Amino acid sequence: MIIQFCGLSGAGKTTLATGVKNQLSEKGVRVEIIDGDLYRSKLGKDLGFSKADRQENIRRLGFLASRFSAHGIVSIMSVINPYEEIRTELVNSYENVKTIYLDCSLETLFQRDTKGLYKRTLLPEDHPDKLKNLTGVNDQFDRPDCPDLYINTGLKTISECTDDIAGFVLQNLDSDFPLRSETMHFKGLSNE
Ligand SMILES: Nc1ncnc2c1ncn2[C@@H]1O[C@H](COP(=O)(O)OS(=O)(=O)O)[C@@H](OP(=O)(O)O)[C@H]1O
Ligand SMILES: Nc1ncnc2c1ncn2[C@@H]1O[C@H](COP(=O)(O)OP(=O)(O)O)[C@@H](O)[C@H]1O
C-alpha cells in the first residue's frame, strides 16, 4: 500500500507519519516513511520548488514507494504533494494508492511556523530572505476533491490524528498482507 499524504508545510506530515509508523510497527506492519525533506537531500538534490521540479520529485518518490510497497512495506509519502494532476497520476500508475489530505488553516500554520518559512513570506518584496513560492501562501496548492481520508490537524490532537490514520491503513490492508513475524497474518488480528 502507498499512502500519499498531501498537506502544507507544518500541517503535521512528519509528526503523523512517525506516529503511524510506530503504531503499525507494534502490530507487525512494516512501514517506510518517504519524507520530502530527507529524500530531497538524498535523491533530489537537483530539484528545487518550481512546478516542474515538484512534479518530478513526486514522480521519483512515487516510483520508490511502489517498490517498497511491492515488497509488503506500507510506504508513507510524507510530502506536500500539491498538484491534483500528479496525485491522480500516482493513483493510476500504481496499485493500492490512498490519498490522505492533512488540512490545516493558514492561521494555525502561521502560528506554528516551526521552520520559520511562513514569516519569510511576509518580508518586503526586495528582502533577500523573502520566500516567494511557499506552497499555499504564494504558490499553488490544489485541495484534493475527494481524498480517501480527510484530517484537519488544527482541530484534532496528534494522538487522534495518528489513531485515525493508523486505523485507516489497517482497514485497507489486504487480508493476506505479510506481517513482520512470518507466523502472523493480518487475518490473525481480526479477533482484537
Ligand atoms: N518554497 C517552498 N515551498 C514548500 N516547501 C519548501 C519550500 N522551500 C523549502 N521547503 C521545504 O521543503 C519541504 C517540502 O518538500 P516536498 O518534497 O514535500 O515538496 S513538494 O511535494 O515537492 O512540493 C518542506 O518540508 P515540510 O515543512 O515538512 O513540508 C519545507 O521544509
Ligand atoms: N494534530 C496535529 N497533528 C500533527 N502535528 C500537530 C498537530 N497539532 C499540533 N501539531 C504540531 O505541528 C507541527 C507539525 O510539524 P511537522 O510534523 O514537521 O509538519 P510537516 O512535516 O507537515 O511540515 C509539530 O510541531 C506538531 O507538534
TrEMBL record:
<dbReference type="GO" id="GO:0019379">
    <property type="term" value="P:sulfate assimilation, phosphoadenylyl sulfate reduction by phosphoadenylyl-sulfate reductase (thioredoxin)"/>
</dbReference>
<dbReference type="InterPro" id="IPR002891">
    <property type="entry name" value="APS"/>
</dbReference>
<keyword id="KW-0808">Transferase</keyword>
<feature type="domain" description="APS kinase">
    <location>
        <begin position="2"/>
        <end position="151"/>
    </location>
</feature>
<dbReference type="GO" id="GO:0010134">
    <property type="term" value="P:sulfate assimilation via adenylyl sulfate reduction"/>
</dbReference>
<dbReference type="InterPro" id="IPR027417">
    <property type="entry name" value="P-loop_NTPase"/>
</dbReference>
<dbReference type="GO" id="GO:0070814">
    <property type="term" value="P:hydrogen sulfide biosynthetic process"/>
</dbReference>
<keyword id="KW-0418">Kinase</keyword>
<keyword id="KW-0547">Nucleotide-binding</keyword>
<protein>
    <recommendedName>
        <fullName>Adenylyl-sulfate kinase</fullName>
        <ecNumber>2.7.1.25</ecNumber>
    </recommendedName>
</protein>
<dbReference type="GO" id="GO:0004020">
    <property type="term" value="F:adenylylsulfate kinase activity"/>
</dbReference>
<dbReference type="Pfam" id="PF01583">
    <property type="entry name" value="APS_kinase"/>
</dbReference>
<keyword id="KW-0067">ATP-binding</keyword>
<dbReference type="GO" id="GO:0005524">
    <property type="term" value="F:ATP binding"/>
</dbReference>
<comment type="function">
    <text>Catalyzes the synthesis of activated sulfate.</text>
</comment>
<dbReference type="GO" id="GO:0004781">
    <property type="term" value="F:sulfate adenylyltransferase (ATP) activity"/>
</dbReference>
<comment type="pathway">
    <text>Sulfur metabolism; hydrogen sulfide biosynthesis; sulfite from sulfate: step 2/3.</text>
</comment>
<comment type="similarity">
    <text>Belongs to the APS kinase family.</text>
</comment>
<dbReference type="InterPro" id="IPR059117">
    <property type="entry name" value="APS_kinase_dom"/>
</dbReference>
<dbReference type="GO" id="GO:0005737">
    <property type="term" value="C:cytoplasm"/>
</dbReference>
<dbReference type="InterPro" id="IPR050512">
    <property type="entry name" value="Sulf_AdTrans/APS_kinase"/>
</dbReference>
